[in-house]
Design goal:
two-stranded antiparallel ribbon, 4 strands, rod-shaped, two-stranded parallel sheet, about 15% strand, about 70 residues, alpha+beta, about 50% helix
Amino acid sequence: MRIRRIIAAVFATAALAGLGLTGAATAATAVTPASVTPGECTDNGGTIDRTTPVLPTCRGGTYDGQSVD
């Protein structure tokens, strides 16, 4: 009986720890968007680099390296 309780506690702890890691990853993803608007780039201290091959890129500031749409 004691072993069953210990195993149940270990699984419960692992499940709760997994939820905490998932929540932190979601929060980090929500902070940095995949692409930003030109206004967001310049308002946050960046400049728009239009020499990149596919999409313009924000250089400098908060969104450095993000694509501009």
